[in-house]
Amino acid sequence: MKRGFLNKGASARRLTTTKSSATSGSDSAEKPMQLSRAGKDTVVAATQGSKFQFSGVCRLHSNSPRIIVSDYRIPSFYATHFLYLPSADNATMVYIDSLKGVQTVSAWPLWTQPAPSPPANPPFEIRECDDKGLGMIALRRIARGEVIVRQRPLLFSHPTLHINPDQMHTFFESALAGLSPDTQSAFNSLRNAQLETEDVPRSRGIILTNALATQVPQSHDPTANYNAVFASLSRANHDCSPNAHYSFSAGTFTGRLTALRIIQPGEEITLGYTDIELPRAQRRQVLATKFKFDCGCTTCCLSPKKATESDTRRAAIAAFLIRINELNVNTTEGTEPLFPEGASLARASELLRWAEGERLIEAASKLAMAAAGLAYKENNTSETTRLALRAINYLRAEEGNDSPHFVRFARGTGFSPEQMAAKFDSSSDEEMMGPNLNA
Ligand SMILES: C[S@@+](CC[C@H](N)C(=O)[O-])C[C@H]1O[C@@H](n2cnc3c(N)ncnc32)[C@H](O)[C@@H]1O
């Protein structure tokens, strides 16, 4: 698989946009017709014993797979469609996309297999976290790279939808109507942090609040950041030095969280909703605007002097990683990475220490890999080995103990992945990463 150097897979960031106008969208050079409000125009798509009641102008496109066109008056090329999975009779997920998009996904053989089971004995519970609402709290120590939760989304939606603003409510209510009652109530119990308006009815507010940006390389639109909304996984709150990583497997169509560092019992499990390398003021502005909260994490509560120091470190880390990414966007796995002019092992090692001190593990993972590459270039064998080991340790924290990269690496050294993981886990976060600079 083609893979940009240091640019691994799905973004952990929350989606912040669901384009909603009939004129927006990458494939909308021509505009679909303008629609009037559906009002009481209720359509019943009754098929083969099951009765689905859709308000508005939905029509059944096919029964097996169950595909509904959201508005029959829009030419089907433009119209958004709802696909119910894994089966029409007990749909636990709605996939929202163009007709081509839903047809691509519906043809995947994985829907005939049972959904992967969640980790036995989940290491967290969902409970109130002060002013944050609900959150995920660790019930026991969670090791680096451990899978915390794994589940299929309740709703998976292309970021560009052809809907008139005054059709929003009807559209989303109709999309949810084909789901099983339990799935509907799981969706409806999620938090809506958005102000409710005609343009942002509650169902859309729930998506804007809870969706995680997810790319599916095998989908009809591989570069799109789909909105993935989950029952428990979406309960993870934000922190500017998060301890968990979100990834998505298209092979099983499941999202999961893995522990980036050791999570202690009682500690909250958190994700980064925005670019956590941004300066504090910018991070806080994005979080307040898009997610409607004032971040009170440890890094956001630093004194002005310490906050400036943290901002400086994060800015330097971001600048270095952006440059490396630009240079390596088209490199494939196994080829030699390219480095910016003047990049040195000393500088990469300093940035790695900063990322570790800031507890920015995803950045540390990339920096360790870059530093190992620079050590190799500088013929520094001992540092190459030390940094490569560190890089693989961070990579398996992100990708999980079952990461194919980690498994291959462990086997190559003669250890089983479990033995290697235990070896890595024997050190505390402080031993591995040095002191937390913002504690
Ligand atoms: C995806 S939800 C997270 C789960 C949510 N707390 C709940 O009760 O279901 C995102 C919303 O949770 C709240 N939230 C998340 N992280 C927060 C934080 N660090 N501080 C305050 N509120 C937070 C905000 O209202 C945000 O829009």
TrEMBL record:
- Record region (Disordered): 1-40
**Could you tell me the superkingdom of the organism this chain comes from?**
Eukaryota
Return the InterPro entries for the record: SET_dom (IPR001214), SET_dom_sf (IPR046341), SET_domain_protein (IPR053185)
Which spans does this entry mark as compositional bias, Polar residues? 14-27
Record-annotated SET domain positions: 122-274
UniProt protein name = SET domain-containing protein
User: Which is one Pfam family of this protein?
Assistant: SET
Q: Which PANTHER family match?
A: SET DOMAIN-CONTAINING PROTEIN 5
